[in-house]
Design brief:
- By secondary structure, the chain is of the alpha+beta class.
- Strands 1-2-4-5 form a four-stranded antiparallel sheet, with no helix packed on it.
- The radius of gyration is 40 Å and the shape is elongated.
- It has eleven helices and six strands.
- It folds into two domains: about 10-65 and about 130-285 and about 340-465, Outer membrane efflux proteins (OEP) (Up-down Bundle); about 75-125 and about 300-330, no CATH class.
- It has helices at about 10-25, 35-40, 45-55, 55-65, 130-195, 200-235, 260-270, 270-290, 340-405, 410-445, 450-460, and strands spanning about 70-95, 100-125, 245-250, 295-310, 315-330, 460-465.
Length: about 475
């Protein structure tokens, strides 16, 4: 598959419709990342706008080809006319009358009907200005293609971000519900032990305070979940009740040097390639105005006929007809434009230099973005490893604290703190894994390599989250 290209034998609209039907029929089945992307192709508003804008690319190429094709025109006019001709010193010859020299002729139609028909055809043979215009149109069409491909990659990354944001929000609510269930149980036990005189009232107050804090956090988490669910729904158009995304699990590091990613981005990044074509278009525009002073040569064919009939000085039924035809070449040499051509050439030359400067700025910005994304991926790998170790340690601490509480060495508050630490580490690990996966996809986008195969590979790193409270 070519870099940044997306191919399917089904239309994006058909894919999205099929995905909606299947997901509605099976609401218990979680949505994977590929299903979300297939739906987004036919629903994402920004992608739809980019697809519509891309429709201008092919017509621009057709315009470029048409510049060197023949043009044919027909003109016709009719109305009231007036015409007089005079000819002096002519030679006149007629049967039976011999030849006469120095003859004067005249025609006159002062109140008549006039018609005119002309057919013209031309074929450019040499036209530097038109050649530059053709290059400009082709460059603009290439820019349209690159903008569409860049929009596809941006939509893919946007869909992945929204998908993973929802997965993390869903996990946050699940973890909070687990904490609440544990605190509710601890509160009931503390209340029972207090009623029996086996525990102080402080244990009841501590669990009650934890319970209130978790309930407040759950309300915020529920609101965040609804916002993220709406965001993914707006992107994909999938029913909200079917949006049950997967969380990343083990993610393999990319393990490639920064220099390699910089080389890929310099060669394939769509923003750099787009700006390169913008430089080409600006150069062609400048060349077009420089070439406007050059001679132009066209192959031409013309035929026209003029008729004028009516009343004149020599009678009431005068009729004049003039027929002309020409085939040959036509040379056009611009001589003076009042300074417009030179001023326009200076303007477009400055715009070309500005486009070149913008290209250098884009290259530098993309290089910085690649560096940041690469560092984010490298740091993310280390963060995930550290949090995995921390999660294992917090689980061991949690078990030890509960055992200590049973033995009377730990309080209810110690257990709640251990539970909170384990829950916070669980959520931090889910967030770190999601951020790592996004960093890898962003790095692929910057290198012009984010396509469906890359998304398929990312999808293999996902696993269904636990179903607790997915439809809260």
């Amino acid at each position: 598959m070519a870099k940044g290209q997306f191919h399917s034998k089904f239309s994006p609209l058909a894919i999205a419709a099929l995905a909606c039907v299947l997901l509605t029929a099976l609401p218990a089945q979680a949505t994977d990342l590929l299903q979300a992307w297939q739906a987004a192709q036919a629903h994402d508003p920004q992608l739809l706008a980019a697809r519509a804008a891309h429709g201008s690319a092919q017509p621009q190429r057709q315009q470029a080809k048409a510049l060197w094709r023949p043009s044919i025109g027909l003109t016709a006019s009719a109305g009231r006319g007036y015409g007089e001709t005079q000819m002096q010193g002519a030679q006149f010859t007629a049967p039976g009358m011999g030849t006469s020299n120095g003859v004067d002729f005249g025609t006159s139609v002062t109140h008549g009907n006039a018609t005119q028909v002309a057919l013209q055809a031309s074929q450019p043979l040499f036209n530097p200005e038109r050649r530059a215009q053709q290059q400009q149109l082709n460059a603009s069409a290439d820019m349209g293609d690159l903008q569409w491909q860049a929009a596809q990659q941006a939509a893919m990354l946007r869909t992945a971000r929204h998908y993973l944001d929802l997965a993390v929000a869903q996990e946050a609510l699940r973890v909070l519900d687990q904490q609440l269930a544990a605190v509710d149980q601890a509160f009931a036990e503390a209340q029972e032990r207090f009623d029996l005189g086996a525990a102080p009232i402080t244990a009841v107050h501590e669990t009650r305070a934890q319970q209130a804090q978790l309930q407040a956090r759950r309300l915020a988490a529920q609101a965040t979940l609804e916002v993220q669910r709406r965001q993914l729904h707006d992107t994909t158009g999938l029913p909200a009740e079917t949006l049950a995304p997967h969380l990343p699990t083990a993610i393999a590091p990319l393990g490639q040097a920064l220099e390699l990613w910089q080389e890929r981005a310099a060669a394939y990044n769509f923003h750099i390639r787009l700006q390169q074509r913008a430089v080409d278009a600006a150069q062609a525009e400048a060349g077009k105005h420089r070439a406007s002073a050059a001679p132009k040569l066209d192959l031409v064919a013309q035929a026209q006929q003029q008729r004028l009939s009516g009343r004149g000085d020599f009678g009431r039924h005068a009729r004049n007809k003039d027929t002309q035809a020409l085939i040959g070449v036509q040379l056009t040499v611009p001589l003076y434009t009042g300074g417009y051509r030179s001023a326009k050439a200076e303007e477009t030359q400055a715009q070309w230099l500005a486009a070149q400067a913008q290209l250098e700025a884009t290259q530098a910005e993309v290089a910085r973005q690649v560096h940041a994304a690469w560092l984010g991926e490298q740091t993310g790998v280390q963060q995930v490893r550290a949090l995995e170790a921390a999660l294992h340690a917090s689980a061991a601490r949690q078990d030890a604290t509960r055992t200590g509480q049973t033995a009377g060495d730990r309080t209810v508050l110690d257990v709640l703190h251990a539970d909170n630490d384990h829950a916070a580490t669980t959520l931090a690990l889910a967030q770190a894994r999601s951020s790592l996966l996004v960093a890898q996809l962003q790095l692929a986008q910057l290198a012009g390599q984010l396509d469906e195969s890359a998304l398929q590979q990312a999808n293999q790193n996902l696993t269904a989250s636990q179903p607790d409270n997915q439809n809260q």
